[in-house]
Amino acid sequence: MTLAIIGGVLWLLGIVALAVGILPGDEALAVADRVWPILLFVVAVTIVAELASKAGLFDVVAARLARLARGRTMWLWVLVLALATVATAFLSLDTTAVLLTPVVVAMAVTRKLDPLPFAFVTVVLANTASLVLPVSNLTNLLASDALGGHDPIAFLTLLGPSALIAIAVSVAVLTSVFLRKLPRTYPDATAPAVADPVLLRVSAVVTVALLPLLVIGLEPWMPALAAAVVLIVVFAWRAPRALGIRLVPWSLLVFAGGLFLAVGALEAVGIGRVTSVLAGSGDDLVSLWQLAGVGALAANGINNLPAYLAMESVAGSPVRLAALLIGVNAGPIVTPWASLATLLWHDRLVAAGVRVRWSRFVLIGAVIAPLILVLAVLPLAAG
Question: How confident is the model at residue 172 (pLDDT cuts 50, 70, 90)?
């Protein structure tokens, strides 16, 4: 609700800027033309993930991983790390934060393991692993648009080494902090009940088929929308009560739409002059560190999406744009409000009855973020 209220205020500010001529009409139309495919993808992939979750897909996958680890906590830890990384890369950071978090928490609780370490895996990797593909983060989709197309191979070529470093740093820190505190083994648990095996199988097939379709160069909204339509039709047949208006992430849509409009108005009045001074220029290592660092500070100060939008125009080159993404994707894990995924993650933990101290989140993020900013930028300068 808070997100929707903020979004509504941003919409009002943008409309006022449009009405008084601060934001020209043609620029507002250009913003809308750029934004609608991204927001359509967000809606479609959210519906796919929500319906797959309702079918029990994530619960079954988590249970299979626990069985595959054969009672050894270390291997379960590795498998959950891998699951969070894959979910983030292909289905976006919000899917990992919102849908995977309660699944891994329930999996840990039923096996008498502390759920908090596994919850930290989902929130940290939801942010830091979101550098992998264009569909992993809204900022990536915006950057892909600025780079001239949604080519996942080109995106991986540019950011793949940096993404690998971000994931490796996250895994190393999380493992050193949490794994030693967990017992070496855990008891087995009964498999989760599946209400409708048909829905489960269809959801699994659709989700597995969607993953490669998101990385073959199509506009991401196309396969995501097709997958959403298929699942909606099947659920209308098998479980119509699962369908509803709440499947659409309205709060996120209102917030993102208002944010795009408001930032467009700020750019029209010359915010780029301020950000260009802060972000500097040049493709050398120090300049890239400066850009990534300013992006991370802005993201932790306000939020990563407005931070990216405000600084995109001063990135200036593919390498600088990649440095900015490192800052606004992997950097916003220090303050709770820096990433929408983090706020959504906390809501899910509260609903699951798991307490997390924000001081602990800040401390872990303050270790991981600087390491990533320093190390993940190195491949950009070397290239």
Answer: very high
